[in-house]
Design brief:
The structure is a homodimer. By secondary structure, the first copy, chain A, is of the alpha/beta class. Chain A folds into 2 domains: 242 residues, Aldehyde Dehydrogenase, Chain A, domain 1 (3-Layer(aba) Sandwich), CATH 3.40.605.10; 149 residues, Aldehyde Dehydrogenase, Chain A, domain 2, CATH 3.40.309. Chain A is built from 14 helices and 16 strands. In chain A, the strands form 4 sheets. Chain A has a 7-stranded parallel β-sheet with strand order 10-9-11-8-7-12-13. In chain A, strands 5-4-3-6 form a 4-stranded parallel β-sheet, sandwiched between helices. In chain A, helix 2 runs antiparallel to helix 6, helix 5 runs parallel beside helix 6 and helix 9 packs parallel to helix 10. Chains A and B meet through strand 2, helix 9, helix 14, strand 13 and strand 15 of A and strand 2, helix 9, helix 14, strand 13 and strand 15 of B.
């Protein structure tokens, strides 16, 4: 075994042992741990955390990282306070573990139920934003799991500092040793070795760019729930309330363009395009959005850049939007199936039949009628904090909260039943 | 791209295209397809199927395969009739696709729901028993998926013959081309290439021995739900009803020893061992069960073979059982956690407190009080037919029926809601 394999196995084994104790931790202890973590983070904000973070930021500047990346890396007092608030919010959420979802009686009198239990050991592989360290730890631990966190090498000092604070606070509240591990080594070989620990780790959640997700999916022998890109669409139907459509398109694009549920492509029915598009594009441009249009859009509004094939699959995460005029609901649905990423897609219409058809045929983590794509979110859906929006189809789809960080076991209450 | 990669991509792409059409197939068409398949299988039993099967059986004999393997491979008229019955039973099950599990209203008036939808494209990789071809096809198609089946090379003639019959019957009922593919090539490289088609295939289900499951898990970039071995335990507590305990231990071992939910290790509390074990072992031996015991068991009953460390992790799938005397519930639970496979474990007791403790602490796909481990089964639990018993923790755990062959999408009914 290589040194990396040994280290990975030892980390994973310790987490596995801790996960058995975590599964027996009371809700009170888990919540107390998160509240203590919040307190310790706030206390250490201006000392340990910012000192460690400034090391990362200095190194990033020296390495010539982009201003956007450096911004994502930087922990201001406000951001640290937000991390603490996040921890307290998760502490206050109901504990999914132990909940019995359903219990039924069989003809032989045996009672069968489904009890939620922690998943076990969760590994989170992420990039850039050190806030993820606290967010991911809070959700995994509250659901009763042990968690192994491996952030990007550019944030290693910040992550390790935050990790140490969370770890110590957790210990004081009674969490078992090994419940929370922040990997302090940055070698890729160690990540590769961790991804092979399927005997001890139950789930890997990669959070980051396409390259990271691809690498994790290729290397992991552990199940992966990915949080991939969002190429989200709004289809404005011929029967749309045009003023509602305008508000929703604008909100979905500009309210926070850097998020995965921001809209990237607008599909406009040809019957309303001549009246609707000039007004909409005017408002988008006022909001500093760059519009890239199909040939029919270019005819309707002068001075619009031509959209290329690459625009239909682009996740801009920026103040840019692609616009296409379509002949029918069928064409819109076909476009979404061809170019979309099954993340979030909406129809704006007053027509009952077409609303139902869109809901039925479009197959995305959220399919919406007359609402902004930006609402596909754990908080907005009332599911509590989320560890991401799953773009996979297995285990979790859409906002992934505490519930999806658990699994079930069947429980059977019998009185001597046998198999005939 | 190699020839294997090209073939794999072409199979997977065609299945992906078919899966979009399958998702829109009505329940009536899907059920009609399964009923027609059942009819065609029965019609072709004595001609096409048995001729193809006799080729496989002859080759297996020439290759010197064991009598047990040849038995599993052989399709008798009775087994073909059972396949047809299985297809009709799945046809009659309720369709999970389209079901809305829950719908709730948010403070802004937006309604959010969870709608069950087909998983998409499912690949099943299996060994030996050609019956699996019909069973797996029925469940995957009924839930609205496209399915790619790749059986063992020793059964290729049987599988291809069954596949052709199912395919043609499905087509006549209106299933799309590509909804059901039985891979007719036996090269391992083609399986390896299929396991990389994560753009087109959503789930891989391996059914077979440990070697097959290991290979699939290591090679697949597609999510895998495994159906692994069952090292199942019964713990007979000091407060057990001894006559109930005797019946359950016997039933769990001998009713069908070759199944994954048959018991493999009996843990007996030391307080009842002196009275209980001699009677139990006598009955087991009368039923031709070979008993391997710990030192304390050997002291209580003369002539018992010593159990070695390997016996505690053994999945015998045969008339053999390991017996261990334990000092406490804690020791039993610890033994199960150390040596078990988290499949099915039961406690026999009249003590409420210890029953609850066992249910809480033991973490297996089914945890039972006073019932035979053989009851961990889709049919027995009332879930309908199953494609296997998942020993993974992600997506499905325990009996995996139609429900687990679907995923969800969130549907949102709005009236112009925006993200504030």
């Amino acid at each position: 075994m290589t040194d990396f394999a040994k280290t990975a196995e030892s980390i994973a084994k310790q987490a596995r042992a801790a996960s058995r104790l975590m599964a027996q931790c009371s809700t009170a202890i888990k919540s107390e741990a998160l509240n203590r973590m919040a307190e310790s983070l706030a206390d250490a904000a201006e000392s340990t955390i910012q000192i460690a973070n400034s090391q990362d930021v200095a190194a990033a500047k020296q390495a010539g990282l982009s201003a956007a990346l450096i911004d994502r890396l930087t922990l201001t007092p406000k951001r640290i306070a937000e991390m603490a608030t996040g921890l307290r919010e998760v502490a206050a959420l109901p504990d999914p573990a132990g909940e019995i979802e359903r219990m039924w009686v069989r003809p032989n009198g045996m009672r069968v139920g489904r009890m939620r239990v922690p998943l076990g050991v969760i590994g989170v592989i992420y990039e850039s934003r050190p806030n993820v360290t606290a967010e991911a730890a809070a959700l995994c631990l509250k659901a009763g799991n042990a968690v192994i966190l491996r952030g990007g090498s550019e944030a290693v000092h910040s992550n390790v500092a935050i990790g140490r604070i969370l770890h110590d606070a957790g210990q004081k509240a009674g969490l078992p040793e090994g419940a929370l591990t922040v990997v302090d080594r940055t070698e890729r070989e160690l990540v590769a070795a961790l991804l092979k620990q399927d005997r001890y780790i139950d789930l890997i959640i990669p959070r980051g760019g396409e390259g990271l997700i691809r690498t994790v999916m290729e290397q992991s022998t552990i199940p992966v729930v990915k949080h991939d890109k969002g190429v989200c669409h709004i289809y404005v139907d011929q029967a749309a309330d045009q003023s509602m459509a305008e508000s929703i398109c604008l909100n979905a694009k500009v309210q926070r363009p850097g998020t995965c549920n921001a809209v990237e492509t607008l599909l406009i029915h040809q019957a309303v395009a001549p009246t609707f598009l000039p007004k909409l594009i005017d408002r988008l441009q006022q909001a500093k959005v760059e519009v890239r249009g199909c040939a029919r859009t270019q005819k309707l509004v002068k001075g619009i850049t031509a959209a290329t094939e690459a625009d239909w699959t682009a996740e801009y995460l920026d103040l840019i939007v692609a616009v296409k005029v379509v002949d029918s609901l069928d064409e819109a649905v076909e476009h979404i199936a061809t170019y979309g990423s099954q993340h979030t897609d909406a129809i704006i219409t007053r027509d009952y039949q077409r609303a139902m058809e869109f809901l039925q045929i479009v197959d995305s983590s959220a399919v919406m009628v007359n609402a902004s794509t930006r609402l596909n979110d754990g908080g907005q859906f009332g599911l509590g904090a989320e560890i991401g929006i799953s773009t996979g189809r297995l285990h979790a789809r859409g906002p992934m909260g505490l519930h999806d960080l658990t699994t079930i076991k069947h429980i059977v209450l019998g009185e001597g039943q046998l198999r005939e």
